[in-house]
Amino acid sequence: MNGRSEPAGRRLPVSTLAAVVTGLLAWLIAALGLIGWTLEIPAMSNLFGGVAMQPITAIGLMLCGAGLLLITGPRRWTAAIARMFACVVVLMGAVTIGGFVPGLAAVTGPLVRAVQQAGAGRMSVMAAVNFIAVGIGILTLRARSHWPSQ
Q1: Domain membership of residue 54 as a residue range
Q2: pLDDT at position 11, please?
């Protein structure tokens, strides 16, 4: 005991709960988008109207959601996997942005074209910038377990 009185039923801090809920929501939206693309159901890949989510964007969103879930997990290895997912997401965003920059397009162009030839479109610049920001955010989070089992 550390001298502090703790309630009998420990609750997760609001920040951990927010990360878990946000991670689940991101993962669910991305999964619906991927299922929509796979089964050719436009309503599922275009949940909020406007432009449909590209499969590469859905994969990045799933990695972000999983990273948020894992960074709050009860074990150290979950944080390591979350950081690995974050690195992949940052790389996805950087490669996409590099495909739009004239000087870098020669380097990243083949990667972007390979994704497009697989039947998927290019993610938007805004999605790429957000993936870089979220990925860096997950990388800089300090993993501390707040789960009741600890």
Answers
A1: 14-140
A2: 73
The answer to whether the beta carbons of residues 134 and 61 sit under 8 Å apart is no
Whether 65 is covered by a domain: the verdict is yes
The tokens for 39 are: 């089964």
Cβ(134)–Cβ(64) under 8 Å? yes
Distance CA 49, CA 47 (A): 6
Per the structure block, which two tokens stand in for 56? 């590469």
Rounded Cα distance between 5 and 31, Å, is 42
Q: Is residue 1 part of a domain?
A: no
pTM for the full predicted model? 0.75
CA atoms of 72 and 78, how far apart (whole Å) = 8
Q: Are 64 and 89 in contact (CB under 8 A)?
A: yes
Say how many CA atoms lie within 13 Å of 73 toward its Cβ: 17
